[in-house]
Amino acid sequence: MWQLLALTSAAFSALAAIFEKKALFRIDALLFSLVLSAFTFVLTIPFFWFIDFDVIRTDALMVLYVKSVLGAVAFLLVMHGIQKNELSNSLPLLVLTPGIVAVAAFFLLAENIGAYSLLGMLLLLSGTYFLQLDKNSSWFSPFLFVKRNKSQWYIIGAIVLFSTTSILDKSILKNFKLQPEAFLPIQQLFFTINFFLIYLFKRRRKGELKSQFNQSWKIIVAVAVFAVIYRYSHILAIKSGSVALVLSIKRTSVFFAAVFGGRYFKEHNLLRRSIAVLVMVVGAVVVILF
Predict the structure, then answer these.
(1) What pTM does this model have?
(2) I want to staple 288 with a disulfide (CB 3.0 to 4.6 A). Which of 41, 116, 160, 248 is the partner?
(3) What is the number of domains present in the chain?
């Protein structure tokens, strides 16, 4: 059952990424994140009828809010990254998350890194290298990809934050025993509050939100529907299955988003990038499973 949930999450996550890129051609990343989050929260309101509020712990809500702050910033960074760069070049870098977690656990928690994990990280690095290797550029150029394309800093920041939130997800569901039906709408409410606070802090131009919303509301509604489906199915999969196995299936979303999104947007070097992303996904699966 959890395998089907994880596949559902991966499929709708890929669809959401393609539609997000399309919307970001016309709307600012922060405004998009705010409106999308609000729409997604509205769609999750029916979940409140299935929540047992008597068993919700205050400390669980506190951890969930901290997680939502990290998740909101990470999501905003990803939106900036795919807005300023091609989808098939920026989104696949998120597959590096398992490798980052493994290295962090080695240094911070003294956990061993086995031979399979080393192989997986080698595949991740190899895929990343060929992903950033442009046509007619030197073999050394991928090592300077951040300097060459500064928008990739957004994705790198998101990788660090997602590495933390992926661990917190399981902890909130398992250790704090928060219901999935409570997790999704409350998290979405927190996301909306966080984006609204960032919006107020930025002091955007009056009327800008309404103007850009009128241009893209149909796409935003579609992404909101996709987001509810892939987030809820992901939460259910994590609750009933192994985090490692769920994440290994979820990683396929990046491959499909990069390939089909790249074709839709007519991006450059798509065949090479597709192969590189596939190598990265295999590397991520090896790291997660072994």
Answers:
(1) 0.83
(2) 248
(3) 1
Domain range enclosing 36: 2-289
For 226, the token pair is: 């996709």
Full pLDDT tens readout for the chain, 290 residues: 778 898 899 999 999 999 999 999 888 899 899 999 999 999 999 999 999 999 899 999 999 999 999 999 999 999 999 988 888 888 888 888 777 766 766 666 565 777 877 888 888 878 887 777 766 666 655 555 556 667 788 888 998 898 788 778 878 888 898 999 999 999 999 999 999 999 888 866 666 777 777 777 889 999 999 999 999 998 888 877 766 667 777 778 888 898 888 888 888 888 888 888 889 888 888 877 76
No. of helices (H) and no. of strands (E), the chain: 13, 0
Q: How far apart are CA 47 and CA 270, in angstroms?
A: 40
Query: Could you tell me the two tokens for 195?
Result: 């984006």
Q: Which amino acid is at 2?
A: W
What is the secondary structure of 159-192 as a DSSP string? HHHHHHHHHHHHHHHHTS---HHHHHHHHHHHHH
Q: Give me 185's structure tokens.
A: 């709408």
Query: In 272-284, which positions are buried (b, 16+ CB within 10 angstroms) versus exposed (e)?
Result: ebbebbbbbbbbb
Report the 10 Å Cβ neighbour count for 266.
Answer: 8
User: Which long-range contacts does 196-201 make (Cβ < 8 Å, 24+ apart)?
Assistant: 196/34, 198/30, 198/34, 198/72, 198/76, 199/30, 199/31, 199/34
